[in-house]
Amino acid sequence: KIGELAKQVGESNSTIRHWTKEGLLQVAEVTEAGYQLYASEMIERIKQIHALKEQRFTLQEIKEKLS
């Protein structure tokens, strides 16, 4: 779930939602109750995003590098 992912990577739920909306992260599944579930690979993806942000890349540039 989004809260568990956010806690594991040290980000807020709203940041995870924003990155998902921007296409940086992908939802693996949406439950019947509407919960967004993320695959464990997204943890590594977020580590890559953090590394690129430290290098001062914009979100658009990060999206291009990760695609």
General description of the model:
With 67 residues, the chain is mainly α. Helices cover 58% and strands 10% of the residues. Strands 1-2 form a two-stranded antiparallel sheet. The longest helix is centred in the last third of the chain and has 14 residues, at 41-54. The two termini are 23 Å apart.
* Coarse shape: globular
- Unreliable stretches: none
Radius of gyration from CA coordinates:
12 Å
Order of helices and strands: HHEEHH
Which structural class do you get from the secondary structure elements? Answer: mainly alpha
Strand order of the largest sheet: 1-2
Helical content class: 55-70%
- How much of the sequence is in beta strands? 5-15%
Give the biggest sheet: 2 strands, antiparallel
Tell me the distance between the termini. Answer: 23 Å
Q: How many DSSP H or I helices?
A: 4
Structure described in brief:
The protein has helices at 2-9, 13-21, 41-54, 59-66; strands spanning 27-30, 36-38.
Features:
67 residues, mainly alpha, two-stranded antiparallel sheet, 2 strands, globular
Write the layout of secondary structure elements.
Layout: H1 2-9, H2 13-21, E1 27-30, E2 36-38, H3 41-54, H4 59-66
Antiparallel strand pairs: 1-2
